[in-house]
Specification:
By secondary structure, the chain is of the alpha/beta class. Helices cover 37% and strands 13% of the residues. Helix 5 runs parallel beside helix 7. The longest helix is centred in the middle third of the chain and has 17 residues.
């Protein structure tokens, strides 16, 4: 073995050999199957450039997209009991929580942040579907209550972006109690005259739909989002009828009055900014100027009565 085989040849092989390519450079559109480069997806707000399908968006990317200049502040949420019911199925609930926390880098399935949207003060509560399917447990309930109280304190609008499979079964009745708890927090916010806007994303189902998600002053949905309580298969098996095409899709719900508007993700920030401005700043944006009134020759009532007597023929 000489210096060519021991030194030069390995360097040449390493230089021309196959290089490792990261797995997250390309994404396949679940609707049309188009392969999408990750930078193109990021620039287009995670919307397919071929068929306009809205892919799921991370909570942090959504917050950066919404707030002015991408600047916002998150609040620390209270820590909850790790396993109040000592629940176990195929895994311990504590193990599932730990895996989700390591995967997402956060304590639970919600982020609460505040800042400005088109100069209007706003508090946003965003669900993270990658954390146990965005399920609503006591931690998520605490987050929504804190978000409502923060909006009251700052005289800001509250915007919630649910993306959830419903209540978290590992917490049993405690998770179901978050439904009336969040409803009470929303009603208190409305009593203060502050706007509550819900942006329904894919998917919004179960106990989340059956509570605060359907109590907004306005309901906006992203195109193609699945919105409902029970799944389509469960409904079909229960009523034993074939459901119409597009059932539980955002566009279908808009046609039937359950959703106020379906807004493209690219236009969502501008839409929310206009709505917050209209709902919070109700005074005119400019000084009210009285228009000049023309001088009109309006006859006096006495003159009108005298003219009527003169016009009436006299009886002989």
């Amino acid at each position: 073995m000489n210096w060519l085989t021991s030194s030069v040849l390995p360097k040449i092989k390493a230089w021309v050999g196959a290089r490792e390519v990261p797995d997250n450079l390309w994404h396949k559109c679940p609707s049309c199957g188009q392969m999408l480069f990750h930078r193109d997806l990021e620039e287009n707000f995670q919307v397919c450039t071929a068929c306009d399908h809205h892919l799921r968006m991370t909570a942090t990317d959504r917050l950066a997209m919404l707030f002015d200049k991408g600047e916002y502040q998150t609040i620390e949420l209270p820590k909850t009991a790790p396993d109040p019911l000592k629940f176990r199925d195929r895994k311990r609930y504590t193990d599932r929580m730990r895996e989700a926390q390591v995967k997402t880098g956060r304590n639970d399935a919600i982020i609460v942040a505040h800042g400005t949207i088109e100069t209007a003060p706003a508090v946003c509560a965003v669900f993270d579907f990658s954390f146990m399917g965005g399920s609503m447990g006591t931690g998520v309930g605490d987050g929504l209550v804190r978000a409502a109280r923060l909006a009251e304190t700052q005289d800001a609008g509250l915007i919630v972006f649910p993306a959830s499979g419903g209540a978290r079964m590992q917490e049993g009745i405690l998770s179901l109690m978050q439904m009336p708890r969040t409803v009470a927090a929303v009603e208190r916010l409305k009593e203060k005259g502050l706007p509550f806007i819900v942006v329904l994303t894919d998917p919004t189902t179960g106990g989340v739909t059956a509570s605060f998600a359907m109590l907004g002053d306005l309901h906006i949905a992203e195109p193609g989002s699945i919105i409902g309580f029970a799944g389509q298969r469960v409904i079909q098996e229960t009523i034993r009828e074939q459901l119409p095409d597009g059932f539980q899709k955002a566009e279908y719900l808009r046609e039937h009055g359950m959703v106020d508007a379906v807004v493209h993700r690219r236009e969502l920030k501008a839409m929310l900014g206009r709505l917050l401005g209209l709902m919070m700043f109700r005074e005119p944006s400019a000084d009210v100027v009285a228009l000049p009134q023309p001088d009109l020759d309006i006859p006096d009532r006495d003159d009108e009565a005298e003219d009527a007597e003169m016009a009436e023929p006299k009886k002989t």
